[in-house]
Amino acid sequence: MTIARCLALLTLTLCPLAAQAVPLTVQLRGPGGQPLAGAALAVEVKGRPAKTSTAKAEIGQRDRQFTPQVLIVQTGTAVNFPNFDTVRHHVYSISPIKVMDIKLYSGTPTEPVVFDKPGVAALGCNIHDKMSAHVIVVDTALFGRTDDKGKLTLDLPPGEHSVKAWHAAQKSPTLQSLRLSVPAAGGNATLTLAD
């Protein structure tokens, strides 16, 4: 078989997969209609893996702040907590999805923390009370944070999908479930959080 024929077969094989996803810009709004900047948004597509065993992420500590203050990861992600400050930190969470306690340390702990349950984990530092962050754990690889206009663009297959969303201003520390309809041509959609 010639190289040209192999490339043609590969193109025919892969094109239907590429054609299945269309760009959709989702705007997430609060109950008062205001755009929610910095919100976590995750789209669950049937047949796609919910968990990962290879993904890695990190939340550092710099200038006595967590960075980033909101981290979104797929279920099963190993998260490192490097300390770039000259002072030691004591990172903890008592959230039901991940109870953790990294005692006073400098540098980077030897073992990352694996976030193996979906939901929202609130983090703090036992030494610096003003330090806080959230790890949003979702059962999909299709996720992101909304921009300053509350928008996020993802390539999604057309159809009905389940969405999980969270924003720091919510009254509840849990992910909200929403429905999303993706038209065959893609486009725009607006979703509204309940609280």
TrEMBL record:
The protein's name: Methylamine utilization protein
Species whose genome carries this gene: Roseateles hydrophilus
Lineage: Bacteria, Pseudomonadati, Pseudomonadota, Betaproteobacteria, Burkholderiales
